[in-house]
Design goal:
alpha/beta, 7-stranded mixed beta sheet, 5-stranded mixed beta sheet, globular
Length: about 650
C-alpha cells in the first residue's frame, strides 16, 4: 500500500528555524537568523531572480553559496570530482551553510489581470503548500557522482517552486524518467502510461517494462470519468487490446488488484495537448497503492503545481523551459514526501551515473533566474496567437488548452495556479494534409523548423515526420499537425510570419525592409532614392569584403555606382573586360561548387536544369527564390571580349 507519510498539505503556514539541526517544524516560530529568513515568505519572483536568495538562507551580500566568503553574487562552479576528508577523523568534512528547501513560497510569478484571476482563499491563492524544511544537500561531500555542491542551489530552487521536499538533477529529462522507472518498478508490477504523451518516454517505459517483466498498460485521458462529457460508443475490443493500442480509461488500466505501482501523467500531452485531470488520477492511483508522477515540463511550476493536486513526484525536462536558452540538456525529479521511494530515486541517480555536469548545473541555475519573466511573456504570446490561428481559414483546428473551445479547458483552468496561465505550447492542424503542413514549415522565416521547446526562440515542427522516423511507422500523430513552441519574439511578427506561410506566400529577405520595398512600388521619389542608396552601399560592402580575401598584388579597383572598392577576384567569363567581381550577386551565383554568370550562362533556371540533370522543379524554384537579387531575366549589356576563363 501507499506509505502513510504526511503530505505537504498537512504542514501549511509553518516556519522552520534554519539553524536547528533536526529540521523540526514549529508553528509561526521566528527564525534564529533573521538575516537569512524572515517571518514573511518571499514571493516566487524574488526566489527565482536571486536564485534562491534569502528564501534558501543564501544572502548575496554574505557569500552566494556554501559559506563562500568572497561575497560573490553569482554562485561558483565546483568541477572537483572528489573532496578532502577531515585529516584527524577521516570523516567527510561538513558543508557549512548548505541551502535548505524553504517551507513557504508564494507563487505569484505570473500575475494575470485582476479580471481573469481566479478568486480563492488567501491561504490558497498562488501559494505553494508548506513542507517541513529539509537540507537541499546532505551536508557533506565525498565523491562527485552522488555529491556535487554545484547542484545544491539549483535543486533547492526547483524544489521550492514545485513545493516538494527535495529535488534531484539528472543528465537529461530521459535520464530522470529512467531513474524513476528503475526506482519504482520491479518484476511483477504494473506501469500505467498515457497513450498521448512524449513518444520517447512512452517507448522507453514500454521497453523497460518488457525487459524486467513488468506489465505495461496505456490509458486515454479522454475516456472514462476523466472526461465525463465524452459520449463515445462502446468499443468492441477487449481491455487488453485497448491497453496495447489506443488505451483504455484510467480506472480500468490501474485496476483493483494492487499491482499498479506507477501511474504517469503528462498534461497537456505532447503534441496533441490533451488535458488530464491530475487530482482525479491521483485519487484513483492512491486508492490502490500506486505512486503518481507528473511530467510538468510544458507548464513549469509557474503555471501548474502537481504536488498540490496530489502527485508524489514531478518530473521536468529542464532542457526546455527551466533553462530556456537551448544550451543545456538536463532533467529534474521533485519529491512530495521524504520516504523510501525518494531514497530509491536518489540512489538510482548515483548508481546509474545519470548525473549532470557542474557547468551544465550552473547554466541551468543561470537560466532559471529569468524563468518568471520568460514564461509570463510566452503565455501571453501563445494566447494571442491561438485566438488568431483558430480563426484562420487554412487551419482546421488550433490545439491550445487556453482556448475556451478546447475540450479540456475547464480542467486546465482549475489546475492552473492563477486560472489564466496555460503555457507556451500549442499545435495546429493544417488543411491540405501532410504536404501543406510541411510547406508551412518551409515558408516560415521567423519560426525555426527544429525539435525541442521552451526556448527564447520560436520553433515549428512537423511532429509526425520526427516520430514516424524514430519509431519506424505510424506514431499516431496526425500528419497535418504542426507543433509550435512560442518564444520571446514580438507576437505580431510571429503571427504575420505564420499567417503568410499558411497562405503560401514566399517571403524574401528583402521583405523584412518594408519601407524600402514599399518605396519601389509606390513610386515615391525620395523613398526610391533611399532604396537605391541602400542597394549601392550593400554592393560596395560586398565588393570590399571580396577584395580583402585576395592577395594585395591581385587587387584591382572597380567602380560600384561611382564608388571605388578593392576587389580580389573578377569574373573573366561573361563579364570579362568589365572588372565585375564574382561576388556581385546581381550577376553571379554558385550552386554546389559550380559558378554561374548571367551574361554567359543565360537564364538561371535553364542553367540549373542543364548542369543538374534530374533536378526537381521544387528545388529549382527554391534555388531561384534564395537569390532574389540575381538579375538573370534582364537584358544585360554584353562584355568586351578581352579575357579567357574564370
Amino acid at each position: 500500500g501507499r506509505p502513510s507519510t504526511a503530505r505537504p498539505s498537512e504542514h501549511r503556514n509553518l516556519m522552520v528555524d534554519p539553524g536547528d539541526g533536526g529540521g523540526e517544524v514549529a508553528p509561526n516560530k521566528a527564525a534564529s537568523h533573521p538575516a537569512r529568513m524572515s517571518t514573511r515568505a518571499p514571493r516566487v519572483d524574488t526566489v527565482i531572480a536571486q536564485a534562491g536568495g534569502v528564501a534558501l538562507g543564501i544572502c548575496p551580500g554574505r557569500g552566494a553559496n556554501h559559506g563562500d566568503t568572497t561575497g560573490s553574487v553569482i554562485p561558483p562552479i565546483y568541477p572537483s570530482t572528489t573532496y578532502a576528508r577531515d585529516p584527524e577523523t577521516y570523516l567527510p568534512r561538513p558543508l557549512m551553510g548548505a541551502a535548505r528547501v524553504p517551507n513557504r513560497v508564494v507563487a505569484t510569478a505570473i500575475d494575470a489581470p485582476a479580471s481573469n484571476r481566479r478568486e480563492v482563499a488567501d491561504d490558497d491563492r498562488g501559494r505553494f503548500t508548506a513542507v517541513a524544511s529539509a537540507p537541499a544537500h546532505p551536508g557533506k561531500n565525498v565523491y562527485a557522482r552522488p555529491d556535487n555542491p554545484t547542484y545544491v542551489q539549483a535543486e533547492a530552487v526547483i524544489a521550492a517552486l514545485d513545493g516538494g521536499v527535495g529535488c534531484a538533477l539528472f543528465s537529461s529529462g530521459m535520464a530522470a524518467a529512467c531513474g524513476l522507472a528503475t526506482a519504482l518498478l520491479k518484476h511483477g508490477d504494473r506501469c500505467v502510461f498515457p497513450r498521448h504523451s512524449y513518444f520517447a518516454c512512452r517507448e522507453y517505459f514500454r521497453q523497460h517494462c518488457a525487459r524486467i517483466g513488468c506489465e505495461f498498460r496505456l490509458y486515454d485521458c479522454r475516456k472514462g470519468k476523466l472526461q465525463t462529457h465524452s459520449n463515445e460508443a462502446a468499443d468492441p475490443r477487449t481491455d487488453e487490446e485497448l491497453w496495447r493500442t489506443e488505451g483504455s480509461a484510467v480506472e480500468a488500466a490501474v485496476g483493483a488488484d494492487g499491482k499498479t505501482k506507477l501511474v504517469w501523467i503528462e498534461t497537456p500531452a505532447n503534441p496533441t495537448w490533451d488535458v488530464t485531470d491530475v487530482r482525479r488520477v491521483c485519487d484513483i492511483a492512491h486508492a490502490f497503492g500506486a505512486s503518481v508522477c507528473v511530467d510538468n515540463t510544458v507548464l513549469t511550476p509557474l503555471c501548474c503545481a502537481p504536488i498540490r493536486l496530489g502527485a508524489d513526484f514531478v518530473m521536468h525536462s529542464a532542457t526546455k523551459y527551466l533553462n530556456g536558452h537551448s544550451d543545456v540538456v538536463a532533467g529534474a525529479v521533485v519529491a512530495a514526501v521524504d520516504d523510501e521511494r525518494w531514497g530509491a530515486v536518489k540512489s538510482a541517480r548515483a548508481m546509474n551515473g545519470g548525473i549532470l555536469g557542474s557547468f551544465e548545473a550552473w547554466l541551468l541555475l543561470r537560466g532559471m533566474r529569468t524563468l518568471h519573466v520568460r514564461v509570463r511573456r510566452q503565455c501571453e504570446s501563445a494566447a494571442y496567437l491561438a485566438k488568431r490561428l483558430a480563426a484562420h481559414k487554412n487551419v482546421s483546428v488550433c490545439l491550445y488548452q487556453g482556448l475556451a473551445s478546447h475540450p479540456g479547458h475547464d480542467v486546465a483552468t482549475a489546475q492552473s495556479i492563477d486560472g489564466a496561465s496555460f503555457g507556451g505550447m500549442m499545435s495546429i492542424r493544417v488543411k491540405g494534409g501532410a504536404d501543406a503542413a510541411k510547406s508551412v514549415c518551409g515558408l516560415c522565416k521567423i519560426w525555426v523548423p527544429a525539435t525541442s521547446l521552451g526556448g527564447v526562440e520560436s520553433l515549428i515542427e512537423h511532429r509526425a515526420t520526427l516520430e514516424g522516423g524514430c519509431l519506424g511507422g505510424d506514431s499516431g500523430v496526425p500528419v497535418d499537425l504542426l507543433r509550435l513552441s512560442v518564444g520571446l519574439e514580438d507576437p505580431e511578427d510571429l503571427w504575420i510570419d505564420l499567417k503568410e506561410a499558411l497562405e503560401g506566400k514566399k517571403r524574401k529577405d528583402s521583405d523584412y525592409f518594408p519601407d524600402l520595398a514599399g518605396a519601389k512600388s509606390d513610386g515615391d521619389a525620395a523613398a526610391a532614392a533611399a532604396a537605391a542608396e541602400f542597394d549601392r552601399k550593400r554592393k560596395a560592402e560586398s565588393a570590399a569584403i571580396a577584395g580583402k580575401r585576395g592577395h594585395y598584388r591581385d587587387r584591382v579597383r572597380v567602380a560600384v555606382d561611382g564608388v571605388g572598392a578593392p576587389v580580389g577576384n573578377v569574373c573573366r567569363r561573361g563579364c570579362a573586360g568589365r572588372d565585375v567581381p564574382v561576388s556581385d550577386k546581381s550577376v553571379h551565383a554558385k550552386v554546389k561548387g559550380l559558378s554561374y554568370c548571367a551574361r554567359s550562362d543565360g537564364a538561371f533556371p535553364d542553367w540549373l536544369r542543364a548542369r543538374f540533370p534530374g533536378i526537381r522543379l521544387d528545388d529549382v524554384e527554391a534555388a531561384v527564390a534564395a537569390r532574389p537579387e540575381l538579375r538573370w531575366g534582364e537584358r544585360l549589356p554584353p562584355a568586351t571580349a578581352n579575357g579567357g576563363g574564370e
